[in-house]
Design brief:
Elements (H helix, E strand, L loop, with lengths): L1 E7 L7 E7 L6 E10 L2 H7 L9 E2 L4 E8 L11 E4 L8 H4 L9 H6 L10 E3 L2 E3 L12 E5 L3 E4 L5 H4 L5 H12 L8 E4 L3 H13 L4 E4 L3 H9 L4 E3 L6 H8 L4 E6 L4 H9 L1 E9 L14 H7 L2 E4 L7 H13 L9 E5 L3 H9 L5 E5 L1
Helix pairs in contact: 5-6
């Protein structure tokens, strides 16, 4: 079947909208007609080759739409169902069986190889192979092939424009607080970086009942937005020493830190802001794949802190995505303050605006 897709053909170059062909769904697969797709920094990192993908490729991994067809053996969804697409997983390895789908032992191959696990392609342009299956979906297109494992059914009245970013960015930030940290009410948290993931962590902290909720962000408009959606304090890192500013609010330091920056000096400041026996969650994707961070081993030992790397918020998407959607619909998760919509053919403008800090979470609509 012919579809329209945004193709990345060269690193750090705009996407090109082209007519290509998509395969029929095979056993365990689902063909989804996209209605909306969020733009995530991982898409930009893959386009710019900070993440390992082979070009030409169709990216996109926050898709939401309606099931068009299902392959043999699929029982989880049926044609006509509204769905949100999330990270790919095999459903069979030890981690998947334990519910840790974000840490699927075959995850790298499933999400970044550009092919099905058997090596076959889902997309082509005549005789030219096009990389697809990004996060087991490649949803920068009018249709996507996903799997039963990464397809989450939502109710028939769901607003798919708001539901789309729940599949990765919102799930990651909110889940880091609500699931990875299992943050307790009344405990202090600091979120470093107020992009879509950081602001989602703020919303998760509000839902968890954390207090105070401190955001560290250099952009004034983002600090204001963080306060609008529930942060109690916003710190400008240019105004002075960050740990001192945080300890002026909470003398002993914060119980939890969420870092979305993956920048070593910021991580050092975040560690210095933790209370004894606190926990720090790492969510950021570094621009340099070889990036490292350092810390004092003696200080680390004496502090008793826990450092936790987090993928997709350590969530079970089948239950957590509908939970987040219910919070949004009840007015407890102000997604609409983060989302800015663009027609699909304005994908490059959406990315430019996001990189310029003009919007927090672009969502492309079809």
């Amino acid at each position: 079947m012919q579809i329209t897709a945004a193709i990345a053909r060269e690193a750090k170059r705009p996407f090109a909208l082209e007519q290509i062909e998509i395969d029929e769904p095979r056993a365990g697969e689902v063909l989804v007609r996209l209605e909306a797709v969020g733009v995530c920094h991982s898409d930009i990192a893959a386009r710019d080759q900070s993440l390992p993908v082979q070009m030409p490729v169709v990216l996109g991994h926050e898709g939401a739409g309606v099931v068009a067809r299902v392959g043999p053996g699929v029982t989880k969804v049926q044609p006509g169902d509204k769905v949100v697409l999330t990270v790919g997983s095999c459903g069979e390895c030890t981690n998947c069986r334990r519910g840790d789908v974000a840490y699927c032992e075959k995850g790298m191959k499933l999400n970044y190889s550009g092919r099905r696990p058997d090596g076959s392609a889902t997309l082509c342009c005549g005789s030219e192979a096009i990389g697809g299956y990004f996060f087991a979906q490649s949803s920068f297109a009018t249709y996507a092939i996903a799997t039963e494992h990464n397809t989450v059914k939502v109710h028939a009245g769901a607003d798919l424009t708001m539901a789309a970013p729940l599949g990765c960015g919102i799930q990651t930030g909110a889940g880091a607080v609500m699931r990875s940290l299992a943050a307790q009410a009344g405990r202090a948290i600091a979120v470093f970086g107020a992009g879509s993931v950081g602001l989602s962590a703020v919303m998760g902290a509000v839902l968890a009942g954390c207090d105070p909720i401190i955001v560290v962000e250099p952009v004034e408009a983002r600090r204001a937005l963080a306060l609008e959606i529930g942060a109690t304090h916003a710190v400008d890192p240019a105004a002075g020493e960050i740990p001192a500013a945080i300890r002026a609010i909470v003398e002993r330091g914060v119980d939890y830190v969420v870092d979305t920056t993956a920048v070593d000096p910021v991580i050092q400041a975040a560690l210095a802001s933790l209370a004894p026996h606190g926990t720090m969650a790492f969510l950021g994707v570094p621009k340099n794949p070889e990036a490292v961070f350092s810390t004092s081993l003696l200080g680390f030992l004496a502090s008793g802190v826990t450092l936790k790397a987090v993928i997709e918020g350590d969530t079970d998407p089948d239950t957590f995505i509908p939970e987040l959607l219910a919070h949004y619909e009840a007015g407890r998760l102000p997604l609409d303050k983060l989302v800015h919509t663009y027609p699909f053919d304005q994908i490059n403008q959406a990315i430019d605006d996001q990189l310029a800090g003009l919007v927090v979470k672009p969502v492309l609509t079809f």
